[in-house]
Amino acid sequence: MNRMQFYVTTPIYYVNDRAHIGHIYTTTIADVVARYHRLRGRDTFFLTGTDEHAAKVADAAAERGKTAQQWADENAASFQETFARLGMSHDDFIRTSQDRHKQRVLRYVRELLECGDVYAGEYEGWYDAGQEEYITENKARELDYKSPITGRPLVRKRERNYFFRLSAYADALRQWLNDNPRAVLPEARRNEVLGRLGEGLNDVPISRTGTGGWGISVPGDAEQTIYVWIDALFNYLTTVDTDPRRHYWPADVHFIGKDILWFHAVIWPAVLMALGRRPGFEWVKLPRCVYAHSFWIAEGMKMSKTMGNFIDLEKIDAYIAEFGLDALRHFLTIEGPLGNTDGDFAHARFIEIYNSELANTLGNCISRVCNMAGRYLDGALPAAPEDGAECREAADRAAAAAVEHYEALALDRAGESAIELVRAVDAYIERTQPFKLARDPAKKDEVGAILARCAEALRIATVLLWPILPNKMAEAWARLGCADYAAALTDRGRGRLDDWLAWGQLPEGTRITQGPALFPRHQEAK
Ligand code: MSP
Q: Per residue in 37-52, is it b (16+ CB within 10 Å) or e — as a string?
């Protein structure tokens, strides 16, 4: 991939909830990807935000005697505060109630009305009045024409609406998916979309009535409000539709959960195709990748608020307090549902991974090497020998593998490749036994050469792990004599990954310092 810029997004979150594992997971993996690309030196844009024009926001506000805007303001502020506290490095936070968003959505819808891809029509179907929701014919029959929630009979309702001509884009969508194997990932999701496309596409309503004014009105028709999903999808475009930002489009990756795949892999690209045909909108291309991850479950069971097993913000905060923010990021990245199977948030597994990978491997190896450098070399490193010792080969292999995995969004494997390198350093120490050699003063040079190789390999491992463990790796760099990396990357700064992954960057005389364990081993209280 040779693009010099990179644009990554998360879904924008409904503002009637506090952040939970679903929101924090997607935002964390997007953050890891954004940090990788900044480390790589790319001009990166990372977007998250809130989806505010849902009917339930207006309802929840009314119950509390507030305006929808007040309620949205409070909850959007809480998301922003949470993401800041969790160290997310997003470049902007879009709110769909902001003027910058609303004005552009109006422009796009006006364009689509003008070319006829959005048209006024009538919708008729079974309607659940209590839930304000249309039910498909098949579903209604299954439910015996009664509301599953209130038990009251469904009614036949006819509504004037605006529709998007989705049916006209079935062939183009199929072609896009066939020509671009990475357009929808993982592959199982792409096949799912292709399968459903084979069943044909109907036009979709893109407006609603009776929203009490909460939302964006259809241009020229104040009775109709743009459907919240269409409004929300446009956020990815409205945020960067400005002169200094337009070069970021198209998005390199939209991270989403599998529940919202259809909107992102079918409706969104079709809307973009329609808009991209309008004069002045030729730059509106399709996203390069829609990545739909699976779900978290908890201790082997589906999470639900009523069951009380939901991984909510309180539980997440408790893990951070106990293990540190980076340990949480690591667990989410390594064990998360990036593929097409769900991920299990299990306490015992969290501790197992924390202890084996972070405490016993990464943290321990850094301490070991820094301590030996202090004890045997007075903390001053000789230059790492150039020869093809096993450390160097392991470092080159790990660097190539991790970069390849990061580029392919296989974040778990990227992290594992770096940890493999640390294990190789441990094995090298076991084989060469510098702690025994150090008893013989005549072997000081040999000990120095071994520790210099270890420090070099660890430096490379910590660079590869920084996107996942940004806080702890910055501490490690201070000990390994490369604090300048952290300085370059502060405040969304860019790194020089290719240089930093090259062997032999720690000059002779580099000061190695010792410090407390980066990841203290966790003992479960009895
Ligand atoms: N507002 C829409 C998205 C509009 S994007 C143009 C929305 N918001 S949401 O707040 O309900 O969803 C947030 C995200 O959390 C979704 O991507 C959803 O897949 C994800 N998750 C919700 N529960 C989840 C898990 N248990 N596990 C992982 N992700 C989950 O949908």
A: bbbbebebbbbbbbbb
HSE of 133, CA atoms in CB hemisphere, 13 A? 14
In angstroms, the CA 83 to CA 24 distance is 8
Question: Residue type for 35, please?
Answer: R
Alpha carbons 299 and 290: distance in angstroms, whole number: 28
Please name the amino acid found at residue 105.
V
287 Cβ inside 6 Å of ligand 1: no
Among 149-158, 397-406, 483-492, 508-517, which is the least confidently predicted range? 149-158
Decide: 23 in ligand 1 pocket, CB within 6 A: yes
Query: Model-level pTM?
Result: 0.95
Task: Give how far the C-alpha of residue 469 lies from the chain's centroid of Cα atoms, to the nearest Å.
Answer: 15
Ligand 1 closest atom vs CA 13: 10
Residue 26 Cβ < 6 Å to ligand 1 = yes
Residue 201 CB contacts under 8 Å (≥ 6 apart), including other chains: 166, 167, 169, 170, 173, 266
Q: Specify whether the CB–CB gap between 5 and 45 falls below 8 A.
A: yes
Atom of ligand 1 nearest to the CA of 296: 27
